[in-house]
Specification:
Distance between the termini of chain A: 46 Å
Helix content of chain A: 25-40%
Radius of gyration of chain A: 17 Å
Number of helices of chain A: 5
Strand content of chain A: 25-35%
CATH class of chain A: Alpha Beta
Largest interface: A-B, 29 and 29 residues
Number of domains of chain A: 1
Number of strands of chain A: 11
Oligomer: homotetramer
Structural class of chain A: alpha/beta
Strand order of the largest sheet of chain A: 5-2-6-7-1-8
Order of helices and strands of chain A: EHEEEEHEHEHEEEEH
CATH superfamily of chain A: P-loop containing nucleotide triphosphate hydrolases
Shape of chain A: elongated
CATH architecture of chain A: 3-Layer(aba) Sandwich
Chain lengths: 197, 197, 197, 197
Amino acid sequence: MSKLFFRYGAMNSGKSTAMLQVAHNYEERAQNVVLVKSATDTKGKDQIVSRLGVSRQADLLLSPGQDLRASFHDLCQQRALDARTIGCVLIDEAQFLTPEQVDQALEIAVLDSIPVVAFGIRTDFRTRAFPGSQRLMEVAHSLQEMKTICRCGSKAIFNARVGKQGIIREGEQVMIDGDSAQYEALCARCYLVPDRT
Amino acid sequence: MSKLFFRYGAMNSGKSTAMLQVAHNYEERAQNVVLVKSATDTKGKDQIVSRLGVSRQADLLLSPGQDLRASFHDLCQQRALDARTIGCVLIDEAQFLTPEQVDQALEIAVLDSIPVVAFGIRTDFRTRAFPGSQRLMEVAHSLQEMKTICRCGSKAIFNARVGKQGIIREGEQVMIDGDSAQYEALCARCYLVPDRT
Amino acid sequence: MSKLFFRYGAMNSGKSTAMLQVAHNYEERAQNVVLVKSATDTKGKDQIVSRLGVSRQADLLLSPGQDLRASFHDLCQQRALDARTIGCVLIDEAQFLTPEQVDQALEIAVLDSIPVVAFGIRTDFRTRAFPGSQRLMEVAHSLQEMKTICRCGSKAIFNARVGKQGIIREGEQVMIDGDSAQYEALCARCYLVPDRT
Amino acid sequence: MSKLFFRYGAMNSGKSTAMLQVAHNYEERAQNVVLVKSATDTKGKDQIVSRLGVSRQADLLLSPGQDLRASFHDLCQQRALDARTIGCVLIDEAQFLTPEQVDQALEIAVLDSIPVVAFGIRTDFRTRAFPGSQRLMEVAHSLQEMKTICRCGSKAIFNARVGKQGIIREGEQVMIDGDSAQYEALCARCYLVPDRT
């Protein structure tokens, strides 16, 4: 049995960089990795993009209805790879996975004995979990925080949606576009106390 | 700003012992603590009971509709304690808190600057989060795992409801009675693969 | 391969309580544990004593020259236990182990595949590692902090020796007697800045 | 009071990448950082080099006899920066710091209230701590592991020096040259059991 890891952090905590580093560490030891990205995140298309300037193509672009475990095994077959030689499955933007896909990730770890590391945001702009993050927090073997800072220097834990009038507290959960400036990672105090933001 | 901690673990991971130890550590340094217990957990009544044989009365028995932050401040007033002198608020069986009460716990940490440590189970017998645990996993500053073992020796992460025919996978979320033997902490593999349990 | 864990914390962080809880968790699942205590710590004799009021006899009282791994296997033989059925080896006051004994603990984990959890203090009153803690910090698979608080409410990380004139900064590393009041767990600031202590 | 963090990991665990990411995270929030590198590590000269392909010049190249805290404040003065506006001090190859320099790093965190994050290797090829890592493990507020894998897929915790006849177990602690292939991160079992390596 291998483990399912959820490495969560607010926006801009370096999740994609960390994921590309893990891939690099495995490959340096001559072990294959499979990089998965949720197709819900249309930003960067099929690229996993780190703000440090490194990027790389995903092996699998996962749509909401798709079976993650079946797709993983199909991919191995297409590439003539024995699944047992895969060192690790890495998932970017894992908050957008469906709960079923998280269960399939758990099965890859537990039944196929391949470690799965999912990177994602914990909550949306209303501090509510995304479906994928909620399921990951329920079933992952290990929850590992990735840190970043708030404008005030404290640890940021929330992802605020910011408009002209300040923090927006109602609306659609997912709103992806080119302008990432409308989201801001904040600490709990800067999020909760209006006049501080 | 202080922090809200969620120390989660499967059944029988020693959560109540750890909570009583934290209380002891603060009091040894002459700092007051307030012990909260969810009234939903009728087992042990108003006692926080450790399987190691230590027990202690809760200061606050919290019903679902009750405001945690207001009740905490009322209690301080009744006992003529300045809330600012409270070293820590400790919550037992925190999975039974309502989401609103978790938000109030966050406010005690962030707005009143008193550390809050909530101890609880992550998921029910169907591996779904309890309302309190879900909210805690969304907003706590720090998620800390408390470990225990499965019958097979691996780390237990799930809480199975076990009947005469094996693992029960459907039913009411909460079922508290005197017979704790009907729940069993299991690892993911012993939970997922029927013939192993 | 199992792991060697070092759970370190300042004085009075609840290390013995945590150790007795781990023992309880294994035994509840019908797995044997072996409790080791350094004979250098003459306090409590062969008892592992928790400040919460729980105590229990050690299975093995380890003197500095003694081989931990050989003694462990001898004990199993004496008790007619197959070493492979031991769920866990637990070590109290592990800072007093010799470096060789820590290496033997690592061998129990790695070569005999039995998890070893060592509990101990990180540093002495001059903030220098004990021989056992130093070796544990070098080779343990996992370093896990156990927290307690300073008189000021911050996390304590140092163990000060306190005399009538305040903090004592020179002297013998080990000085065990009945009067534990002469040691105090402090945060770095209360330790470093004289007029604050 | 801020904290001193020691993020340790075996060779090739992504420490420099993580350090450059932390720097990026602070600067994105318009906070200054100061990057320190031990001059003992002559590889890459004054550059902090990540194996992912990112690199950056260190602000301070620290020689063994140099006072870290004084040098840090001198640098701030030279650059007309108020030290209080520095968000974070980051140290690469921190295992090469002298114990005194680690104490100075602690003072920057505790007395100047600037978080210090030191990245480094825990032990040398004989599994003995470097002077800097030993002191960091004694006094850091938080010890955080960075993971990488062994050739066998397990977590690597040791840094073996490998020659034509296999693992070398005696020699000089520091031997830096261009040929990094002579070191290999290994798990405890592959390090301890000769015929496995």
